Amino acid sequence: MKDAAVFCAGTTPASEYAREYLQAQGIPTAENPENAAHLLLDVPSFDGVGNLRGGGNPYALFAELPDNAVVYGGNMGHPALEGFTTVDFLQDVQYLAENAAITAHCALQTAIPLLSRTMDHLPVLVIGCGRIGKCLSRLLRNLGAEVTIAARQESHRAIITALGFQAVSIEGICEILPQIRLVYNTVPRRILTVPTDGRCVKIDLASKQGLIGDDVVWARGLPGICAPESSGELIARTFLRLQQEVC
Predict the structure, then answer these.
(1) Counting Cβ atoms within 10 Å, is residue 154 exposed (0-12), middle (13-18) or buried (19+)?
(2) Cβ(94)–Cβ(234) under 8 Å?
(3) Quick check: is 159 in a domain?
(4) Taking CA 18 as the corner, what is the angle to CA 13 and CA 20, rounded to the nearest 5 degrees?
(5) What is the pLDDT of residues 72-98, one digit of tens each?
(6) Does residue 102 sit in the same domain as residue 84?
(7) In terms of CB atoms within 10 Å, which of 126, 180, 182, 223 comes out highest?
């Protein structure tokens, strides 16, 4: 079993929960990289300057690994990984879908303390109808919110309407914005500059900020912040599933 051990190199709370989950499933964990057949990094794995997320030199870490070790993480294009077999969770559609669902729950947790009222009949705008936008819109409607979804493509707006939501084009956002009390953006490009308005809570969930304004809350990486246990369990379950495919 030593040869099949996984070394959990992540430093986030989610990574610690992932390690605990694997141990609870009877998966052996290595005490150091040199005895590991698998290396599990944080997801995503690297910061903006190429260091390990949470700090650390990736070249030093990977130099300790056996040559045949498999490295698991997110955004696995780092040059230090050359020569290793890698598995990128952020290219896995199932991981992305489940992570979007966690993000949607966290997005609700982020908004509720900022609101002065309940979600019931609250006019909400969700910009974007991708994975997060779909999951979030469903949760909001289940809480009684009046949800409008903004989408660029006419075909997407048609589906939105067929699913029972209000639909608006990106260009039409400004027309309805004065009536909206909560805005979520999920589109990772600049959408619009929004005026400061104490009645409207504005939360940007995108990796690249799309809403520009003094009172916009840019809430990146919510699963690891608000729900690290759920995030860690997802990482561990994804590792177990993809490990079987690699092996």
Answers:
(1) exposed
(2) no
(3) yes
(4) 95
(5) 999 999 999 999 999 999 999 999 999
(6) no
(7) 126
